[in-house]
Amino acid sequence: MEAEPRRAGENDSAGAEITRLCRTLVPLAAAGKYAEAASTYRWVSRASSGDPIRYGDHASRLEFCALTGNEHTGLELLSLLDGVGDHSDAVGRLEFFASAALLTRRLTETGYGEIPFVLNGPYDGVSLSRLHERMRAAALVEAEELDGREHSGYFTVYAERKMAAKPVAEFVPLLPSALPRVPILPPPGLSAEELVIRAEIHNHRCEPEEARACLEAIGDVPDEIAPRLSELRAIFFQGEDTEERLRHAAAGFRGQGDEIRFLLNQCWLGLWLVFDDQVETGVALTTVAAARLRAGTDERAACWGEYWLAHVLSGQGRTSEAYEALRRGAERAGEAGDPLLLGTLLCLEASLRNGDGEDPVTTLELARSATDAFIVGNVGEKAVEAVEQVRIAYERTGSLDELDVFVEHLLATLPVGGPERLRGHLRHLRALSLIGTGRFAEAVDDAYASLGVSASKGKDTAEHWYVLVTALHGAGRYDEVLDVAPRTIALLATSPDWGHRCRWMYADSYRALGESSRAFNEYAVLAEILHASGDTGHSYISVSMAAAEQLDLLGYGANAADFYARAADAALAIGGGYVAATCRNAATLSRLRSGDVDAALSALDAAETAVHAVETETVPVREHLVAQLDHVAAHVLSAAGRVREAARRALRAAETFHRIGEAESARDVDLLLEQILLGDQT
Predict the structure, then answer these.
(1) Strand partners, 116
(2) How remote is the C-alpha of 472 from its chain's centroid?
(3) Rg (CA), the chain
(4) Per-residue pLDDT for 10 more than 60?
(5) SS3 of 317, please?
(6) The pTM is what?
(7) Which of 4, 212, 488, 623 has the most beta carbons within 10 angstroms of its beta carbon?
(8) Contacts (Cβ under 8 Å, ≥6 apart) of 491
(9) What residue spans define the domains of the chain?
(10) What is the largest CA-CA distance in the chain?
(11) What pLDDT, on the 0 to 100 scale, is given for residue 4?
(12) Can you list the alpha helix ranges (DSSP code H) found in 437-515?
């Protein structure tokens, strides 16, 4: 194991333990101890959240991700670049920049170099290959400055080694059912024409990242394929010059006498012009080109013409004409025996019909036929799209049980070697169904598996992560919730309802594990978020009460009382007098626990007012609330030395609890009464 730079300022034991474990990540993976390495990674990730940033520790995590096939997980840590330049620890800066260079180098080597870096910060929008160059330069600058102080070349050598490091493992799964990222690079040694052909195939299969990787791999371009390449680059790298590139490709096809490619180009150009607000020109261009293809003998080209024509017509509200174009195309695709093309046409019609609210029975037939075609063609991405149209159609008919049957049937009949992306999506749908019926424990495996398959293709969404958190929380697997909830919360930034629910499950998991301090922190953060957004209704009230409960457990009674008081005010504002009174009772006990009897007596007065103001509840409910108040009053009055009053309130509470059948509460008050009376005698 190579020597590491000397470090300073790590005196706190918790921080030192995190640092020590971070330094074991790569050695554990190199030793083949994958499960231990993954467990350690999850632990340090959790332990580091919310703490002051230690760039050296995060650098170790970046390095681990880069060298274990988890490059895309490491991308999330690059959001820390926003503040690293201002960090006081020069060695920490060096390590972070060097590890970031290593990670971006690996991403570039695996075909993702042209993907833009989309996290917040000063590097937002920079391609990963360009980011690699910047990180490498920054690391060497830091190393040179450190070497200048030390009068050695140690740090430069160290940085160079780190940035050139080779993987220590092909893939270390960080979560159950995690899969390695599916490679997008084309095989080495392909000619420019072969790469163009592959890009065209990926285009038809709805695999844009793979298509872009093929296009990026092309160097010298022979004249005969230049128009095709120009067209593909216009499609996959859209911008201000898209129309110009498409017209340039069209001129090339015309010059080569390739009428079929010219007409297909005109179909796509027409769609682009419509998108670019040149509607009349675009519709005319696509309509004429599609008609000429229809009159020709190339079946597949004619089908694609109908497909693009349907897109253009539907966008103008001419849905009946769009359906007719798709019908013509599907008939010819069936005759041509092309399952990909047939499924593409059927799926588009199903999508349009779902969007237009057309007969769901017809839509179901189209979507299910499209699904079958894509399974035959082993086209995973498009199969997922078709199943989504099936789901929408079943939901429109209210036939969720039939959707469950459809999903189970497909899972049971999907052939070995069939589209794994589809299998993962079906398991996602099954997990949703199981969660909907309260079968959380059964949903966990499906949720993990669907996330693993989706993430391996870079298709994991906030919904995949949210479903996993929900299943784990419902199944009582709280420790695992803590591993996945932080990323889920980040992904749900634009979905506040789900985001708030996920934050609550995160906090509740800490509570269930007895980590009251972390639970309070998370409840308090959620309460702040809700308050800032103007949501001071039921969610805010329950979260504030939960935060107060944790503060009580931690011995911060006065702070707990403040949270209860906020919850009481919010409840009263929405007409929740009963909840407000309950919170006032709880706040009174919290004041008493803090040792401030005078504050507890003041809180008792507020509780008396709140309880006696409740009139809307049934008699038994009001009696329970009054008995609860008497119980609280007995505690406070006893502490204030007003023993006779305390005994009278305790006796009344006990009688009420006995009368309304709350035996356990009655026993608690009887015990308190006994203590009060014994105290009066001594």
Answers:
(1) 127
(2) 15
(3) 32
(4) no
(5) coil
(6) 0.91
(7) 488
(8) 461, 462, 465, 466
(9) 13-164, 617-681
(10) 112
(11) 39
(12) 440-456, 462-474, 478-491, 496-512
